[in-house]
Amino acid sequence: SEGDMIPATTDGHFSGEYKLDGINQWDALLGAAPPPRKDLLYNIEWDPDNPADYKFAYRYGSHKLIVNQADMDWFTPRHNLPKDSDCTAGVLSDNVGPWLFD
Questions:
Q1: Helices marked H in 1-102 — which ranges?
Q2: Which InterPro entries match (predicted)?
C-alpha cells in the first residue's frame, strides 16, 4: 500500500516526527523474502458528487476482485481462464462487473 512506500524506500530508517504504520517491503521487492502482506488494494476512484460511482481493484493471494471497471481492453486474462467456464463473458462484453479472477 502507499503506507508501505516510505518504510520500504528508507529501509525502515525514517526519523520523521510522524509514526508510520506501513511495513518495510524492500526485501520482498528485491525477491529476497516472501511478501509480508497477502492482500493489496490497487486503487479506489470515487466521485463525491455521485457516491454510488466508485471503482476499485483488490487482490488477496492469487484472487483479484475488480469492481465497476469498464473498457478493460488492456487487461487480457483469458489465457488463465478455464475453457469450459463462462468467465470470459465479463471480459468480452461491456459489463462493468464486479469480476473475480484467480
A1: 5-9, 26-30, 88-91
A2: Alkaline_phosphatase_core_sf
16-69 confidence digits (pLDDT tens): 666 666 777 888 888 899 988 888 888 788 888 887 788 888 888 888 888 887
C-alpha cell belonging to residue 4: 508501505
Kindly report the pTM of this predicted structure: 0.47
Task: Take residue 47 and report the three cell numbers written for it.
Answer: 466521485
Answer whether 57's CB lies under 8 Å from 69's CB: yes
Instruction: Estimate to the nearest angstrom the gap between the alpha carbon of 56 and the chain centroid.
Output: 8
Distance between CA 77 and CA 79 in Å, rounded?
6
Q: Which cell goes with 55?
A: 471503482
Q: Which residues contact 19 (CB under 8 A, 6 or more apart)?
A: none
